[in-house]
Amino acid sequence: MRIVIPVSFHDQHQLHDLVTILLKFGGLERHHVTFFPQLSQTQIAKEQCARLMPVTGNASVIPMDRDLPINNVPQSPNAQWAFVARTIAGLPDQIPWLFMEIDAKPTKHGWADLLESAYNRSGKPFFGNIVATPYRTEQGAWYTIAQDEMMMGVGMYPAFMARWNEGPDIAGRIAELGVGATCAPWTWGVYLRQTMAVLGWAHTDLISDMNSTKNYREADGRLICDTAPSEPARRPRGGMVHSDAVLVHGCKDDSLTRILVPEVEKPVVAGLDPSFNSDQATLVIKEEPPVELNAPPVSLDEPSSPIPAEPDPHPTIIAKDLPESAIRTRITAKSTRVGDFAKEWNMTPREAKRIIEDAGFEVLVPSGWVKEK
Fold first, then answer.
1. Are 95 and 159 within 8 A, CB to CB?
2. Which of 250, 246, 247 shows the shortest CA–CA distance to 234?
């Protein structure tokens, strides 16, 4: 499989520790490791790629041609993920890929082989933590809706997903992600969840979704952690890590790293290991980047925000009572999916579907197109 490590300004300080952990556990001889940095992080990615070259089947760096706006969640992380998906779809070696954010840490020897084997056994194109899509009321209470699920971003994907031409149009949906996209405020996991579910996904406990956690420690041979504050607010995690987990995502301090590699100190210059020559790293540069981002300038006065692995939950859902003529006018002027109505009306696709069908229209399955009956 291909292990994909995205690198951006806000998380590059953890990259050296991640590579140190990868070197400790090894087992990467059969796997590719590809770094996808934003432009300014290319050199840091090259330095860490060089450290991994002796122990991997293939190590490379594929940079974006620009930096993305820092305080721009979820459009910037969506754009970086879409760049990865579309670039991998054009590579000659079409192997499944694991999207491994820098705060995702392997915890056991043989972790990569275990994940690859489990993915192959599942027989599904998408493989990761399947969770109930979280929502939040205006008062801050969390809730979920029956049968509304999503796959967390740290997971496994098929190489060809950005050019998939059978069934639901996932390639078209991926093309809609990015800076200035109309899918905001949804992350890719939320925006693509219905399409991914139709194409096929499988849940695994080998990946532990513990996003925005801290203070990791061991108790009775198990990892345990606390919830960390986050902005935007996220579904609270914390507690015991699943005993089957070989990849733990979401530690926001260095407590998990200190458990996994207690003997390693942080380098004076983050990301630099003088025992390796960074010029050895394979650097792949696309002449024409497969994603046009049209990113606005980054304001240096804006604070950085962490990349979320789940949506910024929506406020209380309010049902709309639209006249039949308004829906008919919309679908006559332009082909429209139930998801498009749901975004406009600030509700789930399931609720939008009910309103549309009550108005006398049909929602096609699995595409979601709204049609006259």
1. yes
2. 250
For 18-121, list the strands marked E by DSSP: 32-37, 58-61, 97-99, 104-106
pLDDT for the residue 313: 35
pLDDT tens column, 67-117: 998 878 888 999 999 999 999 999 999 999 999 999 999 999 999 999 999
Give the DSSP H/E element, type plus range, for residue 135. Answer: strand 135-136
β-pairing, 156-157 with 97-99? Answer: antiparallel
Question: Pick from 11, 90, 82: which is nearest to 294 by CA?
Answer: 82
**Which residue, among 344, 347, 348, 349, has the nearest Cα to 367 in the 3D structure?**
349
Q: b/e map of 319-338 (b: 16 or more CB within 10 Å)?
A: eeeeeeeebeebbeeeebbb
CB 370 within 8 A of CB 337: yes
Q: Which of 90-104, 260-274, 288-302 has the lowest mean pLDDT?
A: 288-302
**Single-letter amino acid code for the residue at 41:** Q
Q: What is residue 284's predicted lDDT score, i.e. its pLDDT?
A: 42
